[in-house]
Amino acid sequence: MKKIFIKTFTIVFTVLCLGVVSVQAQEETNVTLNDEPEEERDSIVQVPFGTKSKKDILGAVSTVNIEDLLKKNYQTNALDGVESFVGGYTGDIWGQNPLILIDGVPRSLDNVNATEVETVTVLKGASAVVLYGSRAAKGVVLITTKRGKQGPLTIEARANTGIFVPKSYPNYLDAASYMTLYNEASDNDGVARIYDEATIYNTAEGVNPFKYPDIDYISSDYLKEYYNRSDATVEVSGGDEKTQYYTNFGASYNDDIIDYGEQRNNSDLNLRLRGNVDMKLSEWLSAEANASVIFNNNYIGRGDFWGASASMRPNWFTPLVPISSLTENERLQSFVDNSNFLIDGQYLLGGNNAVQTNALADMLGAGYIRYKSRTFLYKVSAMADLSGITKGLTFNNSFSLDYDNYFSEAYREEYRTYNPVWSNMNGEDIIVDLNTYGDDVVSSNEYVGDSRYTQTMSFFSQLNYLRTFSDLHNVTGNLIGWGFQSRASVDEGHDGSDYQSTVNTNLGLQLAYNYAHKYYVDFSSAVVHSPKLPEGNRTAFSPTVTLGWRMSDEGFMDGASFIDNLKLTASYANLHQDLDIQDYYMYQGYFDDNAWYQWRDGTMGGNAVLSGQGANPNLSFITREEYRVGLDGSLFGNSIVFDANYFNQLTDGLLSRGASTLFPSYFNRWDHSFLPNVNFNKDRRTGYDFSVSHQNEVGDFKYNFGVAGMVYDSEAVVRDEVYQDAYQYRAGKPVDASFGYIAEGFFGDLAEIENHATQTFGNVKPGDIKYTDVNGDGVVDQRDQVELGRSRSPFTYGLNLTLNYKNWSLFAMGQGQFGAIGYKNSSYFWVYGTRKYSEEVLGRWTPETANTATYPRLSTTGNTNNFRNSSFWMYDNNRFDLTHAQLTFDFPETVFQGTSLLSELSLYLSGQNLFTISKERKMMEMNIGSAPQYRFYNFGVKAKF
């Protein structure tokens, strides 16, 4: 099948070329893109395997000029803020994760800095991505880096320094409050209290904090008020008619907010070098060479500080044991004399039987890890002008090789911790004994820890045809072969590499025609291949057709003088992809011989062979069938520019194991399964995206305001499922539908519990959450879960604003979302058992607060009734974030007259992640168990020489 398609494409393309040659004598004028006026070349857009004039883009393609954006908005991430300019992009594209290509090569976003980038192009529609094959079927983000331009040597330098200030920290209760409430929880459960009043009182009064610990992780004992980041970049470019070059060298360094133990030295150092050269080797042959080298060095002291901050109870142990409190005896003194970790000459490391090692002790004595990565990216391309064969014919060929190596150099020491036994003698607290855990073991050598690599090779060969006949007939033809292979190492104990590489190969064909840039037709397609599928099903054909009509050029639009440009486009596509086939060999059955039974065919004990998965030799590609309609244009002298797309996608053939409806139940048991993977489920995604911008100027004042957004919906069309109650079926509901229980408040007393439907989630008591018996069967169980909302926002939007007055500019942008829900289900909110108590529990239910309580009763058990997703914990995930703001001053050119060194100079102040507007702002800005969210305040200078 694959060979047939390849032959078909070759024949069609050859016929096209021969047809062009046959009509060559009829040409009146030949015009190519390179012959277009200067203003047209300024609007060239990167598209798959080439460029195209913006006016000829047939919809669902949006571009952001990052090079221009950096003049008013400092950033390091190339995609930061793109959603403020591009409708339909929210980190994904139309609800699906895109393929990221950097200079046409699949690469990590970490491989490029924003200062190296010229443009970002977001390919949304299926017809826009089809030439990239299976791996691009969910959308593509093209990141194009800067290149040299013909002109004198130019040097641009930029330096920044700024501070990260935490937005918010979780608020946990102090030790005395914790113990008091834990005693209350014990009373609720009918178990004995474990904290006496004297301990609680002494802790509250701060009497001997070593005996009565009260650890506050979120304090100046362990954290700084802010930390610093600085970076510098130098760009060198220039060239003549035959050779242009570009080089970008950058470095960045930051420390950390933690200010305790070895983690005081936490830091990240990044060095990067990118360069390229464009060479015109002859009148018909040119070449490009691109290389990038990235060094990342990360130093971190051992110890999970943030994890401990969310889990370690404030009174659990004393992190430091004062040697000044030790009673005089030889045994205790020997611990001091022989300890390798005498902190500040005053303390031994603290612990207890439950936390024999802990994050704080790790930070003081366990050592450190140096994480290092070395990345090399290389690409070489050759372009041949074959106009000697026929005008407009060119050939491109490219090969790239990327290698990323990651390893760690570590230093680890084992340490002993001590739990003091206190006694009061003559009114003084002293330590009369020490319980010890572990041993001090000092290592004098670093060792290599993790080590892994990733290698990616890609290539493409492309035969292009681009001609204009009689100034009206514009013909394009592209025949493309593209593929890449990515191979990564795996964990130690395997053979050192992936069993199967990530592979993408496809053959693409594009045939396009437009008449006078008014009427357009484009046929783009690909033959895709996937080794994930069984033989016979590994090749498929993905066709797309797009039509376009520039209505503004029609005579009936002459009266609408305010319309500068208005273009309507429509497309149909049927793509084939293997992205949703997660693993290789999913079409094969397999057996497991690790099962063990006490009996087997009369033999006592031994291994048995059981089926783990059935085979499906008919497993095939997942398809994306898409209809799209787009409208773009400009009004009032290009002061208003807009773009909008409606899309309707049906993803068919998503995999299912067929456990519910396709096969008898006895095919699947707890210890074995004969169920195969089958193409069964379907999803539909619909919606429209839009972007509008308006610019104007009055005297020295200029402004530009833009808004972009998307209205999005989805439906699980087909699911392999069986439920007793119709409302629980996922089919017919949004793909991101969130199910949970309907909460009715708290049970007030035992009588109310007895008169309510029986809740099956443990032993329910007064103060526990009461749920609705939705199906009225007298029992509250999983059958009473209903759809509570959507986890993905159906409406997202972004804003951007630029104000200019003389040499001053103010830029701001932000993003918002509306219509989704979330659950307050982190350990900060779901407090039970021995979990740390947050301020949320202060609103707990008690008999006295039954009418005002905002939180269930406290419990020392797991309490499976209260802590499950329900309307009680649900919140609206609506928010708007001001993500960037920058004030820039550009020195007038007259300042540099008479000097040959400096030609431009700019100073700027900027901020990132400045504020959030939301009813749930406090929760949204608070991280639990990880480093906090930060606001970043920066000062920068940019100069051109």
TrEMBL record:
UniProt keyword terms in alphabetical order: Signal
The family database entries (InterPro entries) matched by this protein are listed as:
Plug_dom, Plug_dom_sf, TonB-dep_OMP_SusC/RagA, TonB-dep_OMP_SusC/RagA_CS
- Signal sequence segment: 1-25
Q: Which Gene3D superfamilies match?
A: TonB-dependent receptor, plug domain (2.170.130.10)
Q: Which Pfam families match?
A: Plug
Q: Where is the TonB-dependent receptor plug domain?
A: 55-140
- NCBIfam families per UniProt: OMP_RagA_SusC (TIGR04056), SusC_RagA_signa (TIGR04057)
Protein name per the record = SusC/RagA family TonB-linked outer membrane protein
